[in-house]
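Q: What residues go here?
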């Protein structure tokens, strides 16, 4: 019952955020989409981060530094650089029907709570759609949004905000991949 209540609440907030005029609340300037080069420069890549050893375990494969997909500012398209994360999870889920995951969409702290809940949901849904496109049963995946409400890193710096713009693939029941755990920062990892 409580889960249904939260789902309805999040859906309601998402719909309100989609219906509101976000551009009017922040400025009167038109919003322009980011170019591919701008988009890539605003995306956190754990495999190239000099500080990634403090974020993930030191001995992780770079393709699985975290079991997360990162996004550029105000973006929710799954970038090709995360194909290995999607593929490895899709292969595991497709071959282990008892396993299930919760994809949690997260954002940095810029923007309203409603906007970030909607953006986080779009990020979670994009990862879910990618997994389904690789053969995962829709019943194995739940997609939810944390928006900016459950931060793992400080939003006081650009680096921290970039690390908060992600969707985490969290195994919730059934079988879990060998080496799956949650690191000290609360991010899911696969060794």
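A:
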């Amino acid at each position: 019952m409580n889960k249904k209540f939260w789902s309805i609440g999040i859906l309601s907030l998402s719909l309100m955020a989609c219906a509101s005029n976000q551009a009017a609340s922040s400025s009167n300037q038109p919003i322009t989409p980011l170019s591919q080069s701008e988009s890539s420069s605003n995306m956190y890549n754990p495999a190239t981060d000099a500080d990634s050893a403090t974020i993930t375990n030191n001995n992780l494969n770079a393709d699985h530094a975290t079991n997360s997909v990162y996004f550029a500012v105000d973006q929710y398209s799954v970038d090709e650089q995360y194909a290995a994360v999607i593929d490895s999870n899709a292969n595991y889920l497709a071959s282990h029907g008892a396993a299930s995951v919760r994809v949690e969409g997260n954002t940095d702290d810029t923007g309203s709570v409603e906007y970030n809940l909607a953006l986080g949901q779009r990020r979670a849904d994009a990862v879910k759609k990618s997994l389904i496109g690789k053969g995962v049963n829709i019943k194995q995946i739940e997609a939810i949004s944390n928006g900016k409400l459950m931060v793992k890193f400080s939003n006081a710096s650009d680096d921290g905000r970039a690390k908060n713009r992600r969707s985490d693939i969290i195994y919730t029941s059934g079988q879990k991949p060998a080496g799956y755990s949650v690191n000290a920062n609360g991010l899911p990892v696969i060794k």
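A: Context that may help when evaluating the design: The CA atoms of residues 36 and 72 lie 10 Å apart. The helical segments are 2-19, 22-26, 36-41, 52-55, 83-95, 113-133, 158-164.
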